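Onboarding guide, step 5: your first structure request.
Type a short instruction followed by the sequence, for example:

Predict the 3D structure of this protein.
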Amino acid sequence: MDFAIKNSVKIFLKGHKKRMANGVCEALDAEIEATLRKACKRAETNGRTTVMPLDL
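The system replies with structure tokens like these:
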């Protein structure tokens, strides 16, 4: 699933005078997915169906 918007990532990195290698967006998507899965699990453990910022 694509979470990261490639152009936004490029703009951010360009603002920090960095370039983007192949695979950065895919790696970022994997990190985001892992974080969201953990947040879902934490919300469920706490008896909620809503993921909240504190779950992240």
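Each response can be followed by summary notes, for example: The chain is about 55% helix and 0% strand.
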